[in-house]
Amino acid sequence: MKHFFQFLFIGLAFVSFGQKKSFDLKESVLKQRALSPVRLNNFQWVPDTDQYTVCSADWKSMEVSSVSSEKSSELVSLAQINEKLGTSFPHLAFATWISKDVLEVSDGGSVYALYNVATKTGSVQKVQDGGENVHFHAASKRLAYTIDNNLYVDGRAVTKNKDKNIVSGQTYARSEFGISEGIFWSNSGALLAFYQKDESAVHDYPLLDINQTPGAVRFIKYPMAGQASEKPKVGIYNLKSKKTVFISPRSGADAYLTNVSFTPSEKYLLVAEVNRDQNHMWLYLYDLKGNLVRTLWEEQNDKWVEPEHPAFFPSNTSDNFIWISEKNGFNNLYYVDINGQIMKTVTANKFVIKDILEANEDGSKIYFSATGANPCNTLVYEVDLQGNQRLLTNAEGTHRFALAPKGAYYYDGYSSVEVANKEYVMTLNGKMAKLLQDSPDKLAEYNIGSTEIGNIKGKDGSALYYRMIKPADFDPTKKYPVLVYVYGGPHAQMVTNSWLAGANLWMHWLANQGYIVFTLDNRGSGERGFAFESQIHRQLGTVEMEDQLTGVDFLKSLPYIDGQRMAVHGWSFGGFMTTSLMLRQAGVFNVGVAGGPVTDWKFYEIMYGERYMDRPEQNPEGYQANSLLNHTKNLKGKLLLIHGTVDDVVVMQHNEALLKSFIENGVQADYFVYPMHPHNVSGKDRAHLMEKVLLYILEYNK
Asked: Is 569 labeled as catalytic in the residue annotation?
């Protein structure tokens, strides 16, 4: 039934339990980063050389070395840059090479500089007060940013909308479809594309700010499933003529315009449009006047089509591009000419390609990250435009990659369940040119138990990967209670072949209190391909619970598991899963703690909710069956619900509607809020949160 591909005891070898350090619960939360393996800071190749730079441990200087050199030397210091430029940058974390002598340096939001390390001269640009969403174009030394709802370039207003419902230069569609920004420069900086969204019809959702006296209401735009949505456009601003043209959706005013990119020639703009039902996608080519030139790609699927990557141009001298499509069941690469013809199916893998990393200098080879056969890995592959593919990173694990100028070497940094962190310079024929770092496991001196990754067979025959954490003093003759930590939602993968297998240190703290901590990636979770991930369509929660119960059955088959003492905890989609298991599979778990849970998908946002559930009027049975408001009478055991009071992702209406249903059914549940925290509780308050969660589990899982 099960197959283990990795097994590791962390920090136990030949040392007795009592001789090692322990960390308390607060430390397990707040010291996760401090106890993580050391990595090189900001490794970068210096353009047009075989040299590379890294930042010092305190981020105050940049050191340079080469592949053939055994030593490094200081190239430039933060103090030197600040003195020469009259700036006050706090660190070099955002320093990026623009050319072999020029660094772009910023504070990450308001001040941007170019510094020549050879001449020790440079230039500085500052964002206007109130400026956000900053995009600096180093070649043209231009700054684009937003102030309130308008877009600016170098202090000049590109848009002048007094109506606050018309928003330019910001993300839209609540950052779905791979959208992470709203401003897009052309290669030369002569053109700027940007999102503009009309939110006039979108509901103003109230959030209470208790930091004022009296409290004040802050409104956010929150489009719920089935209701009015944003109406997007894409603007093209010509910096020479100072004129803007707009592109509107062709399949409906509330369709989605995604994955925007200029061609290298700067003659065209590519935009991937998805209809509101999210089952039809067109990749359109527009000229700079906003006119449609042609359709380059089209896909339909009766479940969903979800483009998440813009066109990738391997060469700056050609408008031909690589398109990532899931049309054959897995993300694969297709070489497309600007006339819309597929020149080559570059890859035909039966595993997930995660992202294109870069191309070599002449654009003949593409480097991409992918899982390979083991979905818990992140490996790096090379493929040429004729489809000849090879694996570069032979060590299983989670890899980071950077190709050297001229393509003679590459940087490879990785971790796995067995390796804390290793970093190399490798030749492209697979030989190690230089060991950069072999980090010790900082947890080796701590009392910390074993982490095991394996898989079990799901009801549909697919492999379901799990992570199991055992106590440092694990005794197979004893019976242990279990915490199932769950997420289970789309695009997420909890179990990875990386340091600690993707776990948090608080899980090891709980294990050392005498627990088994178990996590399983069910159907619907990420990095497994369309067939595995799309079984959740129109019924979020149903097959996911089925797989989690398969995990429970597996646990109960183990001789050291106390099947009568099981708890479950998760946040966001994991909060939805936790509450679903407590209400729709009542009695399996004694106790659950659900943070920021979706409780009824009609309260959730359009872009995500309608992709997986369709609109409420299109799928009333699915919404009804998976609404937790209809199952509160079933609760057995103890359930703690938690929410941040200014959560703008899963709004508090979810938990409060659930509480109302509990009250109406005469059922007791517990509730705790984190005032003025959004969807995630962060900072020092996170230690308070995990104490609340874990002490509740320890108290009631009896």
From this structure: no
